[in-house]
Amino acid sequence: MRRNKVHHMKVEDLMLPGETLRSILDFNRWDMDEFLSLVELTQEDIDALISGEKPFDIEISQKLARKIKLPEEFWQNLQVNYDDEKRKILNREKLRRAQNEIDLDIDFEDEDFFDIAEELDNLGLEEYDIDEDDEES
Known about the structure:
Layout: H1 17-28, H2 32-39, H3 43-51, H4 58-67, H5 72-105, H6 116-122, H7 132-136
Helix pairs in contact: 1-3, 4-5
């Protein structure tokens, strides 16, 4: 039997792709100046990658693959997976906020019921088409 998952994860619960880089750097205990020279990055670049301020793009992934014996796709996949999970969480939060807003602010018996599209638009959601048949119900 398949159970429904309850999603309570927040963006801050996700592991940043840079945490993997930090772990590899800590484990290998490379001389940081030598490492930076080989990968052609600055300490500021590494710090920004670790903190999530800078993404693992193709160029950075290629540079890291030179020194760290992991393919560039590894670094790109870390970033893509993080971005996908972050997007899912943010969309889930947005829908929850919209649901709460709708539940609190819209009286479905009111004549202005069909202004719901405007309400959703104000929440940053796409407009929903309401069939004319629905108007008569």
